[in-house]
Amino acid sequence: MDLTKEDITKSLGVDLELIEYLPYLLQDLWDMGTNPDTVLALINKYSILNSINAKVLDLGCGKGAVSIKIAQKFGVKVVGLDAMEAFIEEAENYAEKHLVGNMCKFYVKDIKEAVKTEREYGLVVFGAVGQLFGTYEKTLSSLSQCIKKGGYLIIDDGYMDDDSDYKDDNYIKHGVLLKIIKESGFTLVEEKIEHDISVINNRYFEFIKKRADELRIKYPEKTRFFENYVKSQEIENKILENKIKCVVLVLKKI
Ligand SMILES: C[S@@+](CC[C@H](N)C(=O)[O-])C[C@H]1O[C@@H](n2cnc3c(N)ncnc32)[C@H](O)[C@@H]1O
């Protein structure tokens, strides 16, 4: 089995059978998980990209919404990597359209491979990619290799409150997360909780449902997969709105 395909579909909450339809299903979205405005505000607040040679790495960049907005606002070079070729092609087109084609370089690459060679970034963004490395400890140690000393990591993820009785292998409790960060070689600069995610979720959901309905008509033999996808998106949104705290973490490498 192709493990990267499994990572991609898991990060987007879609069945492996639907991977070829992802570009169609997600055609109306540019950002696909992380709110670019939140990331820009945090970079600004902590003057993360003030150094003249600041380099940014956006791992799991999707269609490049975060990368391109960073390049536009801060005038820095950004490298965006994603395993989905169709997303990378779109990212390149968006960058040209936003006049930052010369500042943004996008490549088709598996994040797990990239962390073995990418080095000395002032900022790494890991936006809504999920538990790709298995555990939070491994995520932080793997991403840390790409960041220079004093550099930053911005992660968009979620956690469960300590008193929550909800169980979900994709998330850990807040206290556990803080302990892992403390032992990771990073300091926690800010955890910015995203309160109004239902607005974004509803917008994403309406687009996705419309496209899934179109595909259901075109490929009736796959109806079950498209219906399951829409249902799973609905369930995932409810979990994110009611059981999980969606958070953007700013970490600084010690
Ligand atoms: C939920 S999307 C988020 C995209 C982007 N960060 C954003 O917020 O718009 C997750 C992205 O991670 C990518 N991805 C998942 N596993 C990957 C892997 N092993 N290597 C590279 N990209 C991966 C997917 O293709 C997808 O574009």
Core attributes:
single chain; 254 residues; alpha/beta; Rossmann fold; 7 strands; binds S-adenosylmethionine
Overview of the molecule:
The chain is α/β, with parallel strands linked by helices. The protein has a domain at 3-7 and 34-195 and 245-253: Rossmann fold, CATH 3.40.50.150. It is built from ten helices and seven strands. The chain has a seven-stranded mixed β-sheet, with helices on both faces. Strand 1 (55-59), helix 4 and strand 2 (77-82) form a beta-alpha-beta unit. The protein is globular. S-adenosylmethionine is lined by residues 4, 7-8, 11-12, 31-34, 60-62, 65-66, 82-84, 87, 110-112, 127-129, 132. One of its GO terms (molecular function) is methyltransferase activity. One of its GO terms (biological process) is methylation. It holds the Pfam family Methyltransf_31.
